[in-house]
Amino acid sequence: MQEKKSDLRVQKTRESIRRAYLELLRARPAKEITVTQICRLARINRGTFYLHYQDTQDLLDSLINDLMAELSNILHKYSPQQLNENPFPIIYEAFSHFARHAEILPLLQKNSNSGFMEKMKSMISEMALTEWLPLHGDQKPEDYPYINAFIVSGTIEVFQVWLQSGMKKSADELASLIERLALQGIR
Fold first, then answer.
1. Higher-confidence residue: 158 or 52?
2. Are 41 and 76 in contact (CB under 8 A)?
3. Which residues fall within 8 angstroms of residue 174, CB to CB, at 6 or more apart?
4. Rounded CA separation 123/168 (Å)
5. Where are the domains of the chain?
6. Angle CA(108)–CA(109)–CA(111) in degrees, nearest 5?
7. How far is CA 25 from the centre of its chain?
8. Quick one: pLDDT at residue 14?
9. DSSP 169
């Protein structure tokens, strides 16, 4: 019982630190936020902060890594064959995942020194090169880098336009659009 109580306290403390950090991130750039400011807002002492994070950059990286881990779980939920037959569910789930985090995504994109977008590009690229493209026997392996660049760039750009527009389109609308473009082009 003591372990569960301890785990719950750890979770609540980490959540309090993250909430305080995000609140501060809305008002100023990440590089201007100090551990002292986070601790004051989260109502914890510095020692408690350092039990969980090395510094503010570690906290920012942790937020990004958690989002990417969730995205990775979504991307690997479906087999390459399922994705090849019907890409809509995976695209829909990925954008739904991001829609659930709509409040923090612009903050992370703006403050991560491109770490957030680079991790997303890398994840999509790896999946396309290792799992999806090999299923398309009509494509030459020497063309994979070009096809991959097209897939990754298109997906990332759609994502960025979505963020910049205030995420007005639903995950369903975006998934339908991306699926149509990927399968049919702009016809």
1. 52
2. no
3. 91, 95, 158, 162
4. 25
5. 1-53, 57-184
6. 65
7. 17
8. 95
9. S
Q: What is the pLDDT of residues 66-93, one digit of tens each?
A: 989 998 898 888 887 777 777 788 888 8
Give 1-53's CATH code, choosing from 1.10.287, 2.60.40, 1.10.10, 1.10.3470: 1.10.10
Distance between CA atoms of residues 110 and 25, nearest Å: 10
Determine the Cα–Cα distance for residues 7 and 51; give it in Å rounded to an integer. 14
d(CA 50, CA 13): 12
> Has residue 113 got a pLDDT over 70?
no
Dihedral over Cα of 130, 135, 140, 144: its sign: negative
* Beta strand extents in the chain (DSSP E only): none
Residue type, 186: I
Query: In terms of Cα–Cα distance, which of 120, 135, 141 is closest to 78?
Result: 135
Q: Are 88 and 174 in contact (CB under 8 A)?
A: no
* Predicted confidence band of residue 1 (pLDDT cuts 50, 70, 90): very low
